[in-house]
Amino acid sequence: MNKIFLxxxxxxxxxxxxxxxxxxxxxxxxxxxxxxxxxxxxxxxxDHGYSQAHYEGGQYVERKIAGAKMIYIDKVNPADRPGITxxxxxxxxxxxxxxLVIANSDDMKDGIxxxxxMHPKIYFVHVSGDDVLTGKAPQNLMNLFGxxxxxxxxxxxxxxxxxxxxxxxxxxxxxxxxxxxxxxSAYLGARHAWENVLHKDPADLKFQVTWIGFWFNIxxxxxxxxxxxxxxxxxxxxxxxxxxxxxxxxxxxxxxRLEGKDAWVVPxxxxxxxxxxxxxxxxxPYFNWGPGYVDCIxxxxxxxxxxxxxxxxxxxQDINRPDTSTIGFVTGAALPASAKQSLNAFIKELGAGxxxxxxxxxxxxxxxxxxxxxxIASDQQIWYMRQLLEGMQGASSAK
Amino acid sequence: MRVxxxxxxxxxxxxxxxxxxxxxxxxxxxxxxxxxxxxxxxxLMKILAGYTRKTSGYxxxxxxxxxxxxxxxxxQLGIGMLYxxxxxxxxxxxxxxxxxxxxxxxxxxxxxxxxxxxSLAADFDFAxxxxxxxxxxxxxxxxxxxxxxxxxxxxxxxxxxxxxTGITNVQKDYLFSALKKMTSEGKSIILVSHKLKDVExxxxxxxxxxxxxxxxxxxxxxxxxxxxxxxxxxxxxxxxRCLQESGRTILELDNVSAPGGRSGLSDCNIxxxxxxxxxxxxxxxxxxxxxxRIAAGxxxxxxxxxxxxxxxxxxxxxxxxKHSGVFFQPSSRLEEGLISGCSVTEHFALQSDHKKFxxxxxxxxxxxxxxxxxFRIIGRPDSLAESxxxxxxxxxxxxxxxxxxxxxxxxxxxxxxxxxxxSWVWQHLHKYCSDNTTIxxxxxxxxxxxxxxxxxxxxxxxxxxxxxxxCETSSYELGLAIAGKR
Amino acid sequence: xxxKLLLRxxxxxxxxxxxxxxxxxxxxxxxxxxxxxxYYHIFKGSLGSWAKFGHVIKTWIPLTLCACxxxxxxxxxxxxxxVEGQVMMGAIFATAVLRFGVESHFSELYLFLSIxxxxxxxxxxALIAGYLxxxxxxxxxxxxxxxxxxAQAIILWLIFGPWKRPGIASMSGxxxxxxxxxxxxxxxxxxxxxxxxSAFAAIILTALMLRYTxxxxxxxxxxxxxxxxxxxxxxxxxxxxxxxxxxGGFSGVAGCLQVTDVYHRLLPAISSNYGYLALLxxxxxxFNVWISPAVAFFFACLNIGSVQLPMMLQLDSSLSGVIxxxxxxxxxxxxxxRMRIRSNEVGAFYE
Lengths: 399, 486, 351
Fold this sequence. Notes:
Chain B is α/β, with parallel strands linked by helices and 486 residues long.
């Protein structure tokens, strides 16, 4: 018995050794030194949502910059990876040669700052954060984000044009400045369409925000987004705008459609989110991270790196141009042609500055003033939105 | 069927449970296997019944060598075993138990088996009602059920392991006549026992085992003295006790009632005096178990009063009783008495007098060694309790008895011990009495009670119905009382 | 323990690991993953560098603490499934104390108090299950599971409610504690000496308690046969409560370290499933105080090393869950095998 043990064990380790030995020379003799960048994704890389948009942004970088190579770790959240911390993962990425690390979630704010202060020679991009604005960021950390409020305005716009009941549901993730900003933008877009295209009374438009508690469903921790979407449709909300990273709302809409109900959905984050859901999908506002990433990495390569706060918007020439536009909106097959026309007109007005929805007078939910009459919101005012806007239903902050 | 056993060995490590046993069981005979505890009887029977594999040797049935590894294979060959505690399903009915292992398929064959059961039961005069749940039967009735089941499976060789333990004399008579009837049909019966009297009464032939070897064979009629010598090497001397004078009352139960056990206990008035040995007789579960547990504080009486040396003890627990010198030992050794998974040394450490935070293992080990020699326990101090044989477990339990107890409450203290061991136990226990310790014990063996006790209390259906000196009664009279005929 | 027995246990452990490898390999072959590469990356990813080793130790510490606590309850025959909730409660109590220390200059004092609070939190949570068991006859498994859910609900409520970050309602956790309230760690491995110390202290204390004290003996006696132990003068209930206190206390320390040493805040997944994992560790470690930490180390390596799988091989890292599952199956198989051997040994003096 003992001998057999030893034999099996020794064979095992022998193979490990044989296998392990030649790998080192191969990696060491790679022709030219590639620029390796690491990507920390909060969800699965193929989630058809937020994380996949980032993943494909990384692939875009690999195509655009010669020698750039992406390594990624997905499902970076305490529920999926118990006991793993951001600095640990950054160590892992560095070990594989990463010189720049992109963290894609608001949730990684503290961890990435900690890692950045530990490794001053590595560059860090925190997507969606504001450490540069608050002054907490070390020199090697920058913030990057897209002006999704435009995308959300378009989402609200098509939702208002489509709804038959005048009730729009917004499937919200957790409550913070970013999510309040996006939910409010969607509402502004919807109200604009309601008032100026359909010429109806804004008081008749119902806009309900329901928060689940995190960017995606964590069973037992968050509210179940599938359940929330069901509740929306069952209570007469015939259009649901998703604000979460994953695509549960689409599935629910399809199901309701099969049951013969009116149900439309506007997903979020990922350009391909509408695929396979043409009967219910009105369109999707999406992030196109590629150009932003390319700029960051080129800045490192050329030595022009600056710790700055970058908020990239759509390319108004063509919001769906992959090389320039960070924010885009693709329409879905369920959107009627007439609505599509109105949308295009709306986009043109936005781009030309003829229409600015973030212009006073605007009031917060509790009636206090957000923007005075005629006042145009500054970036800071938009970024740090303190409450939902007047006319919306749902919690502005935790109870 | 003729069963031949050739040179069977069974070794557990260095221990030879069976050390070259050869014997032949003739068809149509009741063949007794006699021997003290640890002689190797049960091991041999388990090998025959397919529960244990032999180390070496071979078996023949009707001159054909056979080899089987499981009880199922054994029963296909026609060998069945009836255990001390029949292996049945307590929550199924008699008929359902009867059908287990025979009825196959989904169809409801109850009618067919009901017929089969009724005719078999009538054949043997067994008064079993087929729809009663098995957990309401006595051990004797469960035995009868198991015999019927085995017979309907087509058993040709029936092995009975200590079948007369725990059943009434009446049931014993039924059993024996059933056995005789089966032999008349050409079946072979193997009866394992250490009760000489039973074996002598029913067997045609005897084989005596000792320390894993055959020490002798004998055909009826038997000579008891020679048998005893084969079993023990020497004949133990019987003793008798009948203390007339006794001390003051130490335990007093007034109108005590309590639930529990099979029958509970009702309106019990008992006085136990210092220095006497009191035997409790009765069918198992007739109230003596409840009485012992109330006297130990393990059960709370529902009514009446319990006085220990003029102190009312009704609401006190066992530890309180123990503090006053009462010591209880249960009959189920591994279930209640010993801690399986703990070594002998650990048992001693657990009850050592100085209960310090840190255990003194060296003291406990030397304690264990000393007691093991004194009580002739075979094993090592680090042997686990469950690895000891039944007799050794019993002796280990007895070695736990404190030095100067006031009252010893012992449940079946010699159950499963052979005559020599039990006589040794009683010599040891009687030493306590000369130091004014009182012993109250229960036993299913009336002869043991008459020999070892001064006084006997008979329980029937939850009531104490007879209280008499052992020298003024006989096993016949007690037997009547046990059966409820005063 | 006798060296012979230790040898046998080690042999069993190695055999178990061999079965685990076999099982995992089969699964890898079925999924078409490169078998050796997977093992290589897990190995390299967990022990390939000092930094990795540091991460492994960081996981090993709470796992070992929980495992040590569980040894007490297993010894007395209790299935303390509630260990998960006890970790959470330890974390909650520790966080509560640290919140008072945010503005304070005596951060060391608050760190020290947080450990005590962690012990108290875990112990109280364990005592509830223990009390339900001893006084109410509620099976500790059900009580423990229930309390786990309650503890999780309390954490969520705190994070979403009273302890939320200002203006934010997110499940991602409470505000980060200032650096002064992080457990100091060594520069080299970024391991906290206090964490290491508490893990080793737990191992040694548990070993001594179980082997050399009357408490250990009584736990074993009650665990193997409560009725007989009672006849020997040992009341089972107090010892059950005592075992629960030990288990809860140790897991409470683990919970506290998760806050002060790992995450520096309270978050929903603060327990990182270490409680449940520790149950497996102890079972796989044959309920032995010297082997369990080794098994914990193995699990910690798996946990850390499996991060490499998506990075290097584009494999789903839940594969490490498969390996853990395989370990449990192998352990159960091992146990069955052990029982067979043991039943042969039991016969040694029988008949």
